[in-house]
Amino acid sequence: MKKILSIFLLLNMLFLSGCWDSREINEVGLVMAVGIDRAEDSDDFVVTVQIANPKPVAASKEKAISAEPIWVISSIGPTIFEAIREMSKVSSKRIVWGHNNIVIIGESLAKDDIGPVIDYFTHNPELRMKAAVVVSKGNAKDYVGSKAGMEDVPGISLSNLMSYSTLTTDYVQSNMLLLSQEYFAEYKQPILTTIQFKDDKIMPSDGRADKTVETINMSGTAVFNKGKMIGMLTREETRGFTWVNANIKNTLVTVNYGNQDKISLEMKGFNVKVNTQINQGVPSVSIAVLGNAEIVEEDGTSDLSIEDFKMKVGDLVNQKITDEINTCLTVVQKEYKVDTFCFAKYFHAQQNEEWENSIGKHWEEIYPDISIDVSCNIDIIGSTLNQIPANAATRYGEQ
Amino acid sequence: MKFKISRSQLFFVIPNLLFGKAIGITAGVMARKIGADTWTSMLFGFILGIIIMALMTFLCSQFPEKNIIQYSEDILGKWVGKAIGLALTVFFIIAYGTSANVMTLHLSEYFLPNTPFLIICTAYTLICVYGAFLGIEVIIRFSLLGFFGLLLINITMIMGTIKDFQLNNLQPFLDTGIPSNIINSVYVFSDLAMGILAVGMIYPMLNNKEKTGSLTFWAMALSALVIVIWPVFETGVIGADMMQKFVVCCMQQVRSAQLTKYLPRYELLMVSFFVFSVYVQSVTMFYFAKNSFKQITGLKKDWYILIPLTILLIYVTYYMARDDNKFVIFLTSPWPQICAALSIGLPFVLFCVALCRGKFGGKNGGDTPKQELDANIEN
User: Fold this and answer.
1) Could you tell me which residues are beta bridge partners of residue A197?
2) Do A21 and B114 touch (CB under 8 A)?
């Protein structure tokens, strides 16, 4: 019996060694970022990948100058998979997707259909569902090979930028999990952050004159309807969306106080309530944004008491957020006619009977005319350390 | 009696017998039928399952030294009892295939896509042969490890996905209506049947048979809790529409999980926790397939059954899921319906006939001599 067991265990060592799927670390090329475009003259896909080149990153500074930390290759094929397989003809290493940080979808492909991208990357078990997904202004190929942020590998920089989305309202968190969920869902329509090149001035450390460099900037969003990009929201319009839908931890809002003075507030503790109503067959929505804010910078002076001042600033903040939400709603509801805010889901959940019997069947016709009431109530809970503005004495002296 | 298991061992083996396939494949099958109501429908299935388990435990308590095949012969006669034994053998063989394929599909679709599927099926079945060879006592002891494994996988899954949980994905509550929820709960019976019928086989091995009804009730309630949390989180995180797209939807959930930025993916870690409970489920099915066949044929040597059974189970496992789409179709129909008919119908028929024939109340639940009973149980 022991002999049989020994043979059995030895056989299992053979079976379980994973020979068929073995990949040696020195034989794999780790993809850090991927860009996918539609070819200009055909329906083919252009896939561009940024592969980490570990030697220069790990080597000394002198050696690092001679080689780039990334290697960028591009290929074309009738499907994304075939385009990737084409890369094996030029890449000496097997391409592995497990460490990919970001998927950049080119503007032309986004306008055409993002379905193939979602299909390929949800089918591929190697890819993380938390990999960021963005839409580029122009071709994605140009961004994959560009320098971004402070990291040696641009793909990591871009992914890190996305992880700060909870600190800003200028763009939304968009990853493969959210995108595929929204794409497959009955009521939701995807919304993705957009990236574009921006000229930034930097001051070199060697004392030479300032120079302008092109950096990748994350700002604004792409709006989709049934898998096709139908437009882009500006930074200001995007803020209107993120106030209601994004899971914001804390963010900044600046309001004008008086003629020229500006006050910045750090917003915290958000709570958004979306309620739907149907009065005599007419559906309507009310959005209530609640939260707290602290004054973190105040250039202005005021002769009001601190409580009156906070109330006045609170009114300004409420007005600004309400205006931003209304601006965004006007664009997506009236211009694009797409339910980016996913009000259909709220109606289905809150007005189930009416949804099943009437509204749900004609949602696309009803939606653009639905009345949406926005209210905002931000409580100013303090002014972060200062009781009186730092420049108050100077200004009072002037007066 | 040769093998004895304690009450706590029976308590811990029940969640293991239900967990593996229910979270991975049954949830996806149900999502295709009932969308976001998967978790409520599963809950209805568990409520019904608890009632059937109570009936099974009551039946077993009336024949405390016999397993379900033995008291079926007492209640329905020798040949009908043999036929039930044969039906249970076939059930345990196919149930083994469904359970084993939970693991083989995890491996082939996510970790070892280039390894031939037959090799994965063979390797897994050979490991299960080893478990079945060691015997039920070892398997049931192993279930404690399996239970802690399933607790760990639940905790890590919740920690890794709670950030992406969207409550509105679960709304409206009972969207498709209560009747639809109850009808579609039939799919959970492909898992519940493994637990209910295995208890019918395990019961005589229990060393203390007092208040077993309460024991199995709490084991089922705990199982419902650790299993239903999965469709709740799967619907909340990846959404019912996405659950429908995948064969193994729990792995899609795991792909979407992230435990801090330093542990961006932990599929392998979670499968490592998961494997113990699936292994208990598979080996238990294997063991009872062997035991049922042994009882109806009267064969004495285990190896005479183990070797052909191993070959058969490798083939069944491979054939069942060589095409994952066909496997899902099989798990949608007719397998859950067969499981429901067997796990609900068999205890119910046995109860009714035993009641009519006045078979309840005997110390050993029948006329079989004590020595013969012990010999049967040892076999």
Assistant:
1) A216
2) yes
Q: What six digits make up the tokens of B311?
A: 């070959």
The span from the CA of B51 to the CA of B302, in Å, is 35
State how far residue A346 is from chain B, nearest Cα, in angstroms. Answer: 8
Angle formed at CA B254 by CA B250 and CA B258, multiple of 5 degrees: 160
Cβ–Cβ of B241/A181 closer than 8 Å?
Answer: yes
Element spanning A353, H or E: helix A352-357
In A, minimum Cα distance to B256 occurs at: A129
With an 8 Å Cβ cutoff, is B110 touching chain A?
yes
- What are residue A148's DSSP bridge partners? none
- What is the model's pTM? 0.86
Tokens of B221: 């309630």
Average pLDDT, chain A: 82
Q: Which of B110, B123, B130 sits opposite A125 (nearest CB)?
A: B110
Q: Do A185 and B241 touch (CB under 8 A)?
A: yes
Rounded to whole angstroms, the Cα distance separating B18 from B100 reads 13
pLDDT band at B125 (very low <50, low <70, confident <90, very high): very high
Confidence of residue A397 (pLDDT cuts 50, 70, 90): very low
Task: Tell me which residue has tokens 């330093």.
Answer: B262
Residues in chain A within 8 Å Cβ distance of B113: 21, 125
Among candidates B113, B239, B242 on the partner chain, residue whose Cβ is nearest the Cβ of A21: B113
Cβ(A300)–Cβ(A265) below 8 Å: no
Per residue in B147-168, pLDDT tens?
999 999 999 889 988 988 988 8
Q: How far is A131 from chain B (nearest CA, A)?
A: 10
Strand bridging mode A70-77 / A132-136? unpaired
Q: What is the pLDDT of residues A133-187, one digit of tens each?
A: 999 999 999 888 887 777 777 778 888 877 776 667 778 888 898 899 889 888 8
Report the gap between the CA of B184 and the closest CA in chain A (Å). Answer: 21
Among candidates B168, B242, B265 on the partner chain, residue whose Cβ is nearest the Cβ of A180: B242
B302: its two tokens = 């285990």
Among the listed residues B18, B45, B27, the one whose alpha carbon sits nearest the alpha carbon of residue B247? B27
CB-nearest to A184 from B112, B115, B239 is B239
What is the per-residue pLDDT for A82?
Answer: 92
Q: Among residues of chain A, what percentage have pLDDT more than 90?
A: 29
